[in-house]
Amino acid sequence: MIVTQLEDILGTERDVHAETWNSRRLLLAGQKMGFSLHDTLIHPETETEIWYQNHLEAVYCIEGEGEIELIPDGPTYPIQPGMMYALNENDRHLLRAKTQLRMICVFNPPVTGQEVHDENGVYPAAAGTDA
């Protein structure tokens, strides 16, 4: 069994900060579950371009308000508590936070822990994966 308390990873290498977000990585590739699980904060009044070319992601909003826009041609969906979206086609998107968003994110394949978005909003493919 794997048990992780959020408070135990705050301020550690599993608490990854970027300019517009903070990802607290609860479950990682090394734990061999086949997916990773993140408690992510999106900073208020920010916009982040993201394009997970090497990962599929499902996101469940538990706090805040914002929107997600598929690019380049839309559509745009409001984000609010209770809303889930899944990027099942490696969708390129803009994530906009009106207020702080708190999102629970699941990635397949799982991330290793220290990934940050590159200049295209992409996480690198994990070693040994076909991306």
UniProtKB/TrEMBL annotation:
<dbReference type="InterPro" id="IPR010462">
    <property type="entry name" value="Ectoine_synth"/>
</dbReference>
<dbReference type="InterPro" id="IPR011051">
    <property type="entry name" value="RmlC_Cupin_sf"/>
</dbReference>
<comment type="similarity">
    <text>Belongs to the ectoine synthase family.</text>
</comment>
<dbReference type="GO" id="GO:0033990">
    <property type="term" value="F:ectoine synthase activity"/>
</dbReference>
<protein>
    <recommendedName>
        <fullName>L-ectoine synthase</fullName>
        <ecNumber>4.2.1.108</ecNumber>
    </recommendedName>
</protein>
<comment type="function">
    <text>Catalyzes the circularization of gamma-N-acetyl-alpha,gamma-diaminobutyric acid (ADABA) to ectoine (1,4,5,6-tetrahydro-2-methyl-4-pyrimidine carboxylic acid), which is an excellent osmoprotectant.</text>
</comment>
<dbReference type="Pfam" id="PF06339">
    <property type="entry name" value="Ectoine_synth"/>
</dbReference>
<dbReference type="GO" id="GO:0019491">
    <property type="term" value="P:ectoine biosynthetic process"/>
</dbReference>
<dbReference type="InterPro" id="IPR014710">
    <property type="entry name" value="RmlC-like_jellyroll"/>
</dbReference>
<comment type="pathway">
    <text>Amine and polyamine biosynthesis; ectoine biosynthesis; L-ectoine from L-aspartate 4-semialdehyde: step 3/3.</text>
</comment>
<keyword id="KW-0456">Lyase</keyword>
